[in-house]
């Protein structure tokens, strides 16, 4: 047996050897008188036979998705069969390749493209492709081909949320609220509806809040919405309309073209490598020819900071420069833009509901400039806006725009200036609004003025946001705003500042807030302090301390300028697999009339939904509250209950396997039928879906256990895993009275194994009955078949069988 282990080890070494590695004589692996199989296939083809496999393609160290791949025998091992369409989808510029080579069903691209190579990773079932940049289209990094975007399956969906409360004491009350977000996916279209049902004081009130149809327009990189919608708020205030809207969807763009990033320009003396780093991390590496170069597809780690550029020449000499930048929401990359076009009727709870036509557009110009503008047209209201934004490098980013509005006989202008800068771990954002004349109205203000002509109009407003990181000493933040009004004295002010840090594992926060509103005569000033102590770390030697449990002690206090003071303390934590159970106990002391109060809450998160409850008691009475939330999906295979659904979701199908968690999210598990839903998938991006095979029930096998999906926005895509229930079998095979040769290949379906010493072969996922095929050479007398049947009382452990191959 020990000698057999050595032989099997040697066989595996041969199976994983490089094509040009030293070849071994198989006779060294056997004893005198034993036979050995023809091991050339394993030696040259890394243990895989020619055929079709579902493999993950990786092109230039980036995943290109999961695809059916035909592997053919070549002179130096297995070669993939790639068609011209597949190469085009990978980004290969076919115009630079000979037409006669592209006519073949399997294009010999490694011969047509200098420097191209391919490798078959049999262990991970990966096809690794390396193609020089010069042979590719100039596509942005992170591009997911449109042909791989999936519209998903037809399905019905529902998010529900039930909340209720019961109060006893001075003011007894009882109320319940049900929120329903339903939807239907049919082809490319998505329908969404939002409604609520409220029961309070014996009254029932149903409210239908919104209903909308939506689909993407791929050729325009846009979304089309029909029904109740919200306009974009980059230039004008966001409005609620009932109508139609067509707007850009930047999520359809590759990661390297989303958001704002500066264009890097430089000059290389010769063929060189350019490296771009941010915060010390390499974010871009490019090979550039001699002369001027441009890099316009950066994907920075954040929307601000400094990019360090280094040019490495062929002779090893280095040169470099830095590109500081900041960003504002309005800024666009050079040559890129964003637009929206909306038409509909304003939705207001009260007041006039006029029709509106609105459009906005922004376009990135050279020199880090962005021009933007828009208009609003209605029966008694017109406005026109235009502005310019710039990335000033070390001076920060800023924008300035002017809006002219006319309402009935009045008109006015409003200026808006915004500024953002990042320096020395400090993030600064400043916005200033100036309503230049008292006649200026926004569209919603103009619509409401018919019913409320005495509404005060804003005159000026300033917003400030400042964040300072202090390294290991914590962070400091300040948020403030100030505004005043026409024909009204005084102003409104708001200031919040705080400091947070960590000391010996304890987290603390100190804050101060000051608020003053014109409708109140006095201002409010509050100082607060919070402390969290991780008891589970301090009790690490305790038997209750482990990865699935957390335990924290909490304390805090607050005092305001009206003499109100509070102090609270308690414990909070979580338990269970994936921290499914969370809880909190708290005691609060106060000098107010309610005096002290006690609070307790708990929440449970399961694969089918969430349940929570809380109770609070003080001198005025007691209150009990509860909540239940989750999602339901109706699909062609049945009904699946799940966590609350996101905008875009993935239906996981592993029929017959219950309670199987996924690798990325352990709280998502299959139900009793083998179905689960992964909420909040990323639209137009590769999403990796893989069950946790370590928790797969004994006797089951999933061969293709990883899938890559790129759903469209709002889609429900299906990730189906072919689950095979089988047994683990150690089988001894004989042929014509002799043990099968050492190294013979044994296959059943698309699963295969290798015969070891004395005809023994290890097989997994084997069905109760079937037919094995064995081959140890190319001749007719070097292959055989065996029909087998496991005992009816076979257990889930290892089975041992013997069989005569025919």
TrEMBL record:
The keyword Transport applies. Residues 24-163 form the PapC N-terminal domain. It comes from the Bacteria. The keyword Signal applies. GO terms for cellular component: cell outer membrane. It is found in: Cell outer membrane. This is Outer membrane usher protein. Keywords: Cell outer membrane, Fimbrium biogenesis, Membrane, Signal, Transmembrane, Transmembrane beta strand, Transport. Belongs to the fimbrial export usher family. Residues 730-791 form the PapC-like C-terminal domain. One of its GO terms (biological process) is pilus assembly. PANTHER family: FIMBRIAL USHER DOMAIN-CONTAINING PROTEIN YDET-RELATED, OUTER MEMBRANE USHER PROTEIN. It holds the Pfam family PapC_N. One of its GO terms (molecular function) is fimbrial usher porin activity.
């Amino acid at each position: 047996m020990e000698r057999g282990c050595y032989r099997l080890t040697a066989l595996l070494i041969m199976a994983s050897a490089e094509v040009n590695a030293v070849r071994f004589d198989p006779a060294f692996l056997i004893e005198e008188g034993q036979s050995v199989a023809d091991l050339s296939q394993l030696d040259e083809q890394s243990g895989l036979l020619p055929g079709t496999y579902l493999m993950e393609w990786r092109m230039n160290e980036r995943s290109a998705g999961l695809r059916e791949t035909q592997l053919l025998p070549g002179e130096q091992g297995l070669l993939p069969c790639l068609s011209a369409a597949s190469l085009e989808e990978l980004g290969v510029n076919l115009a630079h390749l000979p037409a006669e080579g592209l006519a073949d069903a399997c294009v010999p691209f490694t011969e047509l493209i200098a420097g191209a190579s391919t490798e078959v990773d049999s262990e991970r079932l990966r096809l690794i492709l390396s193609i020089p940049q010069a042979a590719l289209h100039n596509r942005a990094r992170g591009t997911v081909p449109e042909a791989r975007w999936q519209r998903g399956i037809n399905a019905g969906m529902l998010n529900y949320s039930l909340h209720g409360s019961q109060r006893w004491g001075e003011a007894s009350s009882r109320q319940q609220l049900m929120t329903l977000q339903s939807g239907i996916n049919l082809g490319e279209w998505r329908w969404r509806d939002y409604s609520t049902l409220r029961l309070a004081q014996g009254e029932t009130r149903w409210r239908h809040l919104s209903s909308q149809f939506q689909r993407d327009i791929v050729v325009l990189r846009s979304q089309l919405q029909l029904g109740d919608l919200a306009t974009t708020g980059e230039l004008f205030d966001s409005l609620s309309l009932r109508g139609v809207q067509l707007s850009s969807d930047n999520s359809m763009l590759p990661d390297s073209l989303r958001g704002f990033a500066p264009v890097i320009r430089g000059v290389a003396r010769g063929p060189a490598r350019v490296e771009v780093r941010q915060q010390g991390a390499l974010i871009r590496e490019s090979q550039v020819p001699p002369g001027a170069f441009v890099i316009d597809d950066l994907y920075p780690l954040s929307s601000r900071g400094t990019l360090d550029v280094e040019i490495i020449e062929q002779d090893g000499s280095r040169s470099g420069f830095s590109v500081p930048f900041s960003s504002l929401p309005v800024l666009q990359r050079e040559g890129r833009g964003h637009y929206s076009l909306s038409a509909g009727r304003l939705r207001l709870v009260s007041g006039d509901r006029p029709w509106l036509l609105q459009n906005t557009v922004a376009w990135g110009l050279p020199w880090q400039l962005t021009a933007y503008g828009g208009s609003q047209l209605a029966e008694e209201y017109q406005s026109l806006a235009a502005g310019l934004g710039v990335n000033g490098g070390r001076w920060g980013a800023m924008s300035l725009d002017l809006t002219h509005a006319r309402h009935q006989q009045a008109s006015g202008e409003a200026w808006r200036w915004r500024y953002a800068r990042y320096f020395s771990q400090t993030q600064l954002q400043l916005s200033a609004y100036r309503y230049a004349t008292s006649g200026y109205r926004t569209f919603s203000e103009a619509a409401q003025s018919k019913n409320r002509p005495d509404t005060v109009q804003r005159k000026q407003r300033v917003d400030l946001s400042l964040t300072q990181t202090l390294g290991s000493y914590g962070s400091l933040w300040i948020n403030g705003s100030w505004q005043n009004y026409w024909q009204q004295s005084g102003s409104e002010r708001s200031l919040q500042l705080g400091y947070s840090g960590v000391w010996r594992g304890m987290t603390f926060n100190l804050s101060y807030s000051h608020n003053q509103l014109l409708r109140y005569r006095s201002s409010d000033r509050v100082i607060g302090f919070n402390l969290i102590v991780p008891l589970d770390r301090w009790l690490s030697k305790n038997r209750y301390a482990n990865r699935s449990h957390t335990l924290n002690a909490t304390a805090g206090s607050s005092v305001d300028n009206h003499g109100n003071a509070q102090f609270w303390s308690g414990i909070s934590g979580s338990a269970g697999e994936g921290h499914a159970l969370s809880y909190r106990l708290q005691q609060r002391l106060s000098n107010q009339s309610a005096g002290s109060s006690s609070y307790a809450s708990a929440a449970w998160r399961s694969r089918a939904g969430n349940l929570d409850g809380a109770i609070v008691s003080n001198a005025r009475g007691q209150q009990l509250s509860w909540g239940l939330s989750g999602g339901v999906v109706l699909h062609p295979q049945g009904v699946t209950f799940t966590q609350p659904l996101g905008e875009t979701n993935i239906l996981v199908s592993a029929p017959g396997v219950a309670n199987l968690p996924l690798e990325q999210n352990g709280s998502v598990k299959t139900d009793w039928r083998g179905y689960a839903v992964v909420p909040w998938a990323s639209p137009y991006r590769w999403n990796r879906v893989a069950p946790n095979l370590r928790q797969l029930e004994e006797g089951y096998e999933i061969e293709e256990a990883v899938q890559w999906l790129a759903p469209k926005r709002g889609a429900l895509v299906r990730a189906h895993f072919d689950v095979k229930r089988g047994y683990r079998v150690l089988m001894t095979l004989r042929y014509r009275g002799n043990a099968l040769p050492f190294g013979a290949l044994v296959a059943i379906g698309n699963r295969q194994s290798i015969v070891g010493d004395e005809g023994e072969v290890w097989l997994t996922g084997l069905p109760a009955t079937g037919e094995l095929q064995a081959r140890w050479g190319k001749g007719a007398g070097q292959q055989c078949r065996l029909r087998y049947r496991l005992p009816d009382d076979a257990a889930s452990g290892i089975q041992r069988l013997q069989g005569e191959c025919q």
